[in-house]
Amino acid sequence: MRAILAGVLLCAATAAAQVIDRVLANVDGHLVTLSDVRTTTTLGLTQAGTGASARDAALDRWIERLLVLQEVDRFAPPEPAAAAIDARTAAVLAPLGTPDAARATLALLGVDEAWVRLWVRDDLRIQTYTEQRFAGALEPTSDELENYYREHAGQFVRDGRELSADEAQVLAREHVMAARRRALVADWLDGLRRRATIVRPGPGNRP
Hints:
Blueprint: H1 2-20, E1 23-27, E2 30-33, H2 34-42, H3 51-75, H4 82-93, H5 99-109, H6 113-138, H7 142-151, E3 157-158, E4 161-162, H8 165-195, E5 198-199
Antiparallel strand pairs: 1-2, 1-5, 3-4
């Protein structure tokens, strides 16, 4: 009788888990579930927060990641160094506490350290690919640097001291390159979204 009861409870728990989880998006045939989003937000791999808006933001990062990984897989950048994967995996797991505590948390989320390592590996591949893709288009012209300096003069003062010309040029270059990178990446992601088939079940099935 106890064995039968245990089996019934196990089936009920499994059914409940299946009802709680659901598909949030289909990206070119790749499904993203609610548990996927919860796992990555819990581990700090996508934006954390509470409420529907925070979940939508995390889901957007999932969708972008899948689209970019399709491009990465097409062009196959060099594999990340094992040491880099080790270091970043350790950084992801560190907030979870001791190794035993980390394993317990991962188990509750339905993943393991190998899953984290794969996520980290893909993060590093994405980083390498995007750096290669946009490197040549980021270097600003001298006119752009001068315009930035004039429009943001207040940024070039530290503790009441105006930065030297060399210091100001380095800082202006960093800011201009960062802004250009954001714009280029945003345009690129918009293009990937337009070419992809993205379905988000729910009101309006909005892409």
